[in-house]
């Protein structure tokens, strides 16, 4: 990486690869450098911050909006259970989608899709995702 003045800049981004069964590491926030807004991370990587143990979910279904926290490890099964319990929906009667960076509606069909949703919705450590429920 090269800085604007032409000198070689040190890469100070902190990225942690996590498998589905691993807990996020405890990170000393004083030692984490500020990340540039241009920093891009692959979908299987999660920025380690103080709040990586959970993510806030806003789910919209017809005229209803619910809000809840989803704990690590983030799994589609737990997302569906929370939605079904709060909105009294039955499994298999709805689709879960999110808007990606290109403003396209993307289906969440598995845990990898949910990880992509969280990564694209929370690039700067803001642990909030918005999902849209559509009847089948």
Protein described:
By secondary structure, the chain is of the alpha+beta class. 17% of the residues lie in helices and 29% in strands. It contains two helices and seven strands. The strands form two sheets. The protein has a five-stranded mixed sheet with strand order 4-3-7-5-6. It has a two-stranded antiparallel sheet with strand order 1-2. Strand 5 (94-99) and strand 6 form a beta hairpin. The model is unreliable at 1-5, 7-17 and 31-51 (pLDDT under 50).
How would you summarize what this structure contains?
By secondary structure, the protein is of the alpha+beta class. It is about 15% helix and about 30% strand. The chain has two helices and seven strands.
Strand and helix map with partners:
Layout: E1 15-17, E2 45-47, E3 54-61, E4 64-71, H1 76-87, E5 94-99, E6 105-107, H2 111-121, E7 128-135
Parallel strand pairs: 3-7
Antiparallel strand pairs: 1-2, 3-4, 5-6, 5-7
Give the N-terminus to C-terminus distance in angstroms: 47 Å
Q: Please, what is the average pLDDT?
A: 74
Largest sheet, described in full?
A: 5 strands, mixed
**N to C succession of SSEs:** EEEEHEEHE
Tally of contiguous helical segments? 2
The stretches of 5 or more residues where confidence is low (pLDDT under 50) are: 1-5, 7-17, 31-51
Rg, alpha carbons: 17 Å
**Strand line-up across the major sheet:** 4-3-7-5-6
What's the helical proportion of residues? Answer: 10-25%
So what's the overall shape?
A: globular
According to DSSP, the number of beta strands is: 7
Strand content: 25-35%
Instruction: Please identify the structural class as seen in this structure.
Output: alpha+beta
């Amino acid at each position: 990486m090269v800085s604007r003045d032409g000198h070689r800049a040190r890469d100070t981004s902190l990225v942690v690869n996590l498998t589905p069964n691993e807990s996020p590491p405890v990170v000393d926030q004083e030692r984490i450098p500020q990340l540039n807004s241009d920093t891009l991370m692959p979908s299987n990587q999660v920025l380690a911050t103080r709040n990586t143990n959970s993510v806030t979910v806003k789910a919209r279904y017809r005229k209803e909006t619910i809000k809840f926290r989803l704990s690590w490890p983030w799994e589609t099964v737990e997302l569906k259970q929370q939605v079904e319990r709060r909105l009294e929906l039955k499994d298999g009667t709805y689709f879960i989608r999110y808007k990606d960076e290109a403003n396209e509606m993307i289906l969440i069909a598995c845990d990898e899709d949910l990880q992509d949703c969280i990564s694209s919705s929370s690039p700067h450590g803001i642990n909030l995702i918005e999902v849209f429920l559509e009847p089948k």
